[in-house]
Amino acid sequence: MTTDRELRERAGKVIPGGMYGHLNAAIFAPGYPQFFERARGCRQWDVDGREYLDFMCSWGPVVLGHRHPRVEEAAARQAAKGDCLNGPGPVMVELAELLVDTVPSADWVMFSKNGTDATTQALMVARAATGRTKVLMAHGAYHGADPWCTPSLAGTTPNERADLAEFAYNSLTGLEEAAAALDGEVAAIIVTPFKHDSFEDQELAEPEFARGARRLADRIGSALVIDDVRAGFRVDLRGSWEQYGVRPDLTAWSKAMANGYPIAAVTGTDALRGAAQTLYSTGSFWFSGVAMAAAKATIETLRDTDAITAMERAGARLRAGLYAQAESHGFTVNQTGPVTIPWLSFDGDADLSVAMHWTTECLRNGVYLHPWHNWFLSAAHTAEDIALALDGTDSAFSATKRHFS
Ligand code: PMP
């Protein structure tokens, strides 16, 4: 019996369902390991010693590569002094200053632990500022796992969702209509910088949609909240809609902020500082220094090196290689989203059975991709790593062709 199998059996007895949430390998594709032993750079090893070229980067947090020396050193230095103390260390102020200097829409920062903390806290600030209750979100968008936003309604009450109204991503008319229907009650419009819903092709934001959302929020006096939890630090260090000239009132950050250490943040504008100050929003571990030191080192590294460009180069190489391979094997594929947060789907593969087969074959060849969730590049992916990965994906296309013909 493999170690993974043995651990799954033991987990089944002491963890509900053996595993919960987005990391439950039972809902990926056959053959995916549940448990991992270690990681370095762009590689991970599972508990049975199998090595993978990692294209999930721990579902986003790892942006510079696993165990990046500058981040590990900063974290270790802070750990040696103490992590969880009676109050935060100087690092909290240093990190807040760094974010305010890096992100043009940020005049202040509040820290927490997970992306859900940050999206929830951003909405609290918006509600405190406007005295309104309603929130507009895109249909199918993921903003976290608290009762107000978790994709499964199990364990939630209708009341907890009562203040949400939906619009179709990239439809400015839809957004305006949804706002009009709520007649002055909208506290916030929350939107991801591109559409990255699971199980479907990703969609970049139409610049006119982004700019229109900004104009609408101004007109109706609502806060524009960008949920940059997934895209943040992989598209543009200044914020993912900066490229469209759109600055939000509030931004939720997490995932890649500290190269794998647990931290999240809300940044906001001066106009909302007073409202932010009124919240009682806190957590036992929100002020821990190690993750803050790691975040500071991560953001400084992203700022001082060509990490995002390196990621873009690697992502573009992967995308071009996969298109060429798919074509040579007679598949039509769609590759969507930014090259640093890519996904591939097969034309006509509504039930994702081809994607499931292909990713399983990739996994057997040591390339860890995902059949229904977007992937993530890191700055540690070199041209050689991408070439090696493409060897694996090519054999996977061959095997998939054989299987389905
Ligand atoms: N928003 C977005 C866009 C996300 O991708 C995620 C995590 N996948 C979250 C919020 C929630 O973050 P967390 O899982 O850290 O609570």
Automatic annotation (TrEMBL):
The keyword Disulfide bond is assigned to this record: no
TM annotation in the entry: none
Alphabetized InterPro entries for the sequence: Aminotrans_3, Aminotrans_3_PPA_site, PyrdxlP-dep_Trfase, PyrdxlP-dep_Trfase_major, PyrdxlP-dep_Trfase_small
Keyword Transferase attached: yes
Pfam families: Aminotran_3
Keywords: Aminotransferase, Pyridoxal phosphate, Transferase
Listed GO MF terms: transaminase activity
SUPFAM superfamilies for this protein: PLP-dependent transferases (SSF53383)
The protein's required cofactors: pyridoxal 5'-phosphate
Family stated for the protein in its record: Belongs to the class-III pyridoxal-phosphate-dependent aminotransferase family.
Protein's recorded name: Aminotransferase class III-fold pyridoxal phosphate-dependent enzyme
